Each structure stands twice: as C-alpha cells, then as structure tokens.
Amino acid sequence: MENSYASHAPGLAGRKEWIALGVLMLPLLLVSMDISILYFAIPYVSQDLEPSATQQLWILDMYGFVLAGLLITMGALGDRIGRRKLVLGGAAVFGAASVAAAYAHSADALIGVRALLGLGGAALMPSTLALIRNLFHDAKQRGRAVTIWTGVMTTGISLGPVVSGLLLEHFWWGSVFLINLPAMALLLVLVPFLVPESRSASSASSAPSAAGAAASREPFDLVSAALSLAALLTFIYGVKEWARHGFAPGPALAVAVGLVLGHVFVRRQKRLAHPMIDLELLGRRAFGGPVFANVLAMFATVGMAVFLTQYLQSVKGLSPFEAALWSLVPASGVLVAAPTAAILAQRTDRAYVMGGGFVFAAAGFCWLTRIRTDSALWFCLTAAAIYVGGLVAAMTLANELALGAAPPDRAGSAAAVLESGQELGGALGMAVLGSVGAAIYSRDMADDALPAEVSTALPGGVADAVRETLGGAAAAAARLPEETGAGVLATARDAFTHGMGLASVGAGAVMVGAAVFSFVVLRGTSERATSEAGDAPEGGDLAPAQTGVLQ
Fold first, then answer.
1. Distance (Å, rounded) from C-alpha 108 to C-alpha 97?
2. CA–CA gap between residue 235 and residue 155 (Å, rounded)
3. DSSP assignment of 205-266, as one string?
4. What's residue 516's pLDDT?
C-alpha cells in the first residue's frame, strides 16, 4: 500500500491527510496563543526582570511586530524552498526561543527572544495554511479544513489569557513559554511522516541532481524581503502607537514611512520576473476581494476586542482571570456559525453567505450599542457571541475563497498575503475604533462632568489621566475620599460605555459595507476561483505517480 497523499491528484483526501491537518493545527494554536498569553504574566515578568515602561511595551509588542513583518517573506520563502521544510524550521526556532524566553534574565534578552518567537511564528503560520491548499484538493474538504484552521487561530488568541492565568496559579511566569515545547517536539517528529513536501513548480523543476535543483529554483529577492519587513513594521508600529497615545508626529511619520516603503515594494514586484507577491493574482476578484473582506473583518474583530476586555474588567469589576474565562463565551457563536456557514456555502454562492455573516456581525454590534454600565453580563456576552459568530463565518469563507483561487505553487505567498491583510486590518481597527472610543470618553469626562473637588484634590497629571482613560480614573478614584472616588469612577464608566457604544456603531457600519461588498463584488467568484486556480500538480518532492491514499 502506498504511503503517500492525493496532494498531487484531485481526489478526495483520506484519513492520513486529516491526521496531518490535526498535527499542523498544533503550532497554529500556540502561535496564535502567544499573541495574548503574556497579558496576565507581564506583572510577574515586571517584578522579576524590572523592565522600564518602554521595555515592558516592547516585551508585549515585539512578537506581533516581527510576526506581521515577516509573513510575506516567509510565505514566499516556503514556496521556494518547500513549505514542510519551513514548518520544521519554524518549529525548531519557536521551540528553542520558547526555552530562551522562559529563562531570560533581563528585559532586553526577553525582547530579543520575543523577536525570535515572531520569526518562528511567521515561518509556521502561512505554511500551515498553504499546506492545506495542497493537501485538500476537493473544494468541500478544503472548506472544512479552512474552517478548522480559522477556528483554531481565533480560539488560540482567546485561550492565551486563560492558559496564562491557569499556569500562573501554579508555576512561575516562564511556564507560559515552556507550554510550547511538547507541541513543537511532536510537530518535528510527526510532520516528516505525515506531510508531503510541496513547493512552487518552478522551484522544483527538472533538475537531475540536488545541486541542479537548487540552482534552478526561483531567486529569492532579499531587497524585496527587506522592503516588506520595513514597510509592515513601520506602518503597524505607527498605527498601534497612534491608537495607544493618540495623534503625535512620531506615529504619523512611521505610518507615512510605511506607506512609502510599501509603494516602493509594490513597484519593485511589478518589475521582477519572480516577485514575492503575485500582483496579477491580487488583482483578481476571486483572490483580492476575499483578502479585502478579511481586512474589514479583522478591523472589527480586533478593534472591538479591546473594548470588550476593558468592559468586563473595569466596568463589570471582574478579575483578569474571570474576564478571560467569560470572554470565551462568545466562542459559542463560532461553534454554531462556522459549521452553518460551511453547510450553506455548499448550497449557494459563498459570497451571499459571507455577506450574511457580515450582516449578522452588524446586528451584534447594533446590540452592543444598547449596553450600559448596569447591563446584565449575559446581555453583553450574547451581543459579542453574535458578532463574533458572524465575523468568523465570513472570515472562514473568505479564507477558503482566496485559497481556492490561488494556484497551488503560490499557496505560501497567497496565505501570507491573507494573514498580512488580517494583521493590517487588526491594527487599523485598534487605531480607528480605539480613537473613536477615546474621543468620546475625553469629551464626556470634561471638567464640567466631574465633581469640583477632583481638580483640587488631585495633582494636574493625575487629573489629566482621569480625563484620558478609564484605567487612569480607577487609579485616581482610589486616592480620593470614598464618596468622591465612587462618583468619579461611575462617571468614567458611563463615559467608557458611551464610547464603546459609538465605536460599535462604527464597526457595524463597516460590517454593512463589507456585506454590500460581498453581495456585489464577490458574487460568482466561487466558480471562477476554481477554474482560474486549478489543481494541477505543482511539482514537489513526490513523483506524480505516487497518488495512493491511505484510507
């Protein structure tokens, strides 16, 4: 019996492919968890390593910055050297960096190791999605696999704080990194046996020897890699700083520099014989359209996640761990919406189902506008479950459409473009929706909204903090007489909830626009994607004759 896959034939995937998918989901879960796993651990890290305020921010942000900046580079590299090789290399780097992070003895060392974790994560994420494209050639099976991929990615981000809280109750802060090791070890052992190598056709073509094959591969453009890294890093850094501190010359300059570098990168891709990004593919409705829809979905997802977390902790008074556990409740919307969307997509145009998901999300955001400081917890969580379910349903189908439209030999680059779009959408959501909420909060917390004794009882800087953030108001309230502090905190909570409501209006409006975009622009792309991409053999390490499937 042959021990290979149907990855070079358009047949149905068998049991071995699904086992391989399960193995590939392990690194994806952990990579997405690492985005949020330090949220609870940072106080313990601060106590042990004593970082400055700036170092603490970089400890939190460095992983995400490097991950976002290297996605395009790693996607293109996987297409050239082989996606399985890149997964194995990424797992090795991620595992080694996890050990180094757990035993870091200084803040600077931890920042550097977090950058290495981002490097490993960037190697893993696009490769796992690209390998799905080459393992599952049947559209229905690929749809189910992409649904699993999307669910694991979004679940990992939500699980990060919960896992962190559980570990920190029993172990030291380094345990949040060591949890990565068993999964990475399992990946290194099983992937060579379960996952066939795949790379672009021109990178694996017609060379009689290994040396000849290496010589015949597409050249890897280091200048393009540097440009994509610099453009994404500076742009996302500028947007996040803008969201965190408001408009300032530094963040605005970083955004401008990122845009200029991105323009230079795109112009360079147009001139190259073997570009890192296939601009012709990106211009197709069947690929570029779903990428844009994903940007809009992540805009709302990440932009509103910050509000929900703060509402649970600072308005409803839950502890961080309690808030993390309750924030898992909206995942119930995913459990219902994603399979329902997959079933509907088999019976009608995926664009209509995507549009329906966005409408569902808009309804959830509309519900969120009715939340007040004294609203029941179930009222808030139900609204979140509705919008999260709609968004994940739309994102799953967008991922499936885009991946189906991409030629198998460009699956790595296509997956990287998808994920880079998600990172950009998330950063923009934090900046735009966060700025809306901050502006409403500041307006509602003007001097005439606060008790007169606040300005006289608090130093100028502390009084300013009260007017800027809910956290600043909570800290200041503890320094005031009990009755005055309670009044300040109640006013601040009302102002925050008002800001969250208007940010929800903005998110809902964007979702309505995304629904219209799906109904009008993406209609009919499901069939076109299949005909344009095809599932022809891409030329990998397995011979075309090896097409048996272990059932």
1. 14
2. 26
3. -S-SSHHHHHHHSPPP-HHHHHHHHHHHHHHHHHHHHHHHH-S-HHHHHHHHHHHHHHHHHH
4. 93
What stretch of H or E contains 369? none
Read off the tokens for 387.
């919008």
Q: How far is CA 397 from CA 32, 157, 360, 422, 520, in A?
A: 20, 20, 14, 14, 16
| Cβ within 8 Å of residue 497, ≥6 positions away | 311, 315, 371, 372, 373
| 8 A C-beta contact, residue 122 and residue 229 | no
CA distances from 471 to 42, 421, 466, 478 (A): 17, 31, 8, 11
Per residue in 257-306, pLDDT (tens digit) is: 988 998 898 888 888 777 777 777 777 888 888 889 988 998 888 788 87
- In tens, the pLDDT along 60-81 reads 778 877 887 888 888 778 777 7
Cα 473 from Cα 466, distance rounded (Å):
4
CB atoms within 10 A of CB 321: 16
Cβ-contact 289, 521 below 8 angstroms = yes
3 state SS of 355: helix
Helix axis angle for 411-444 and 222-245, nearest 10°, is 20
- Euclidean distance between CA atoms 543 and 479, whole angstroms: 73
Show the low-confidence residues of the chain (pLDDT under 50): 1-9, 204-216, 530-551
Q: Which residues of 470-494 are buried (b: 16+ CB within 10 A; e: fewer)?
A: bebbbebbeebeeebbebbbebbbb
Please tell me the distance from the alpha carbon of residue 175 to that of residue 345, in angstroms, as a whole number: 42
pLDDT at res. 456: 59
Q: Identify the DSSP state of 312.
A: I
Q: Are 524 and 349 in contact (CB under 8 A)?
A: yes
pLDDT of 13 reads 64
Q: Cβ-count burial of 160 within 10 angstroms (0-12 exposed, 13-18 middle, 19+ buried)?
A: buried
What residue has token string 């795949």?
Answer: 198
CA distance 38 to 414: 30
CB 246 within 8 A of CB 439: no
Give pTM, 2 decimals.
0.75
Q: How many CB atoms lie within 10 A of CB 266?
A: 16
469: left (phi over 0), alpha (psi -120 to 50) or beta: beta
The pLDDT, as a whole number, for residue 363 is: 94
Query: CA-to-CA distance for 198 and 206, rounded, in angstroms?
Result: 15
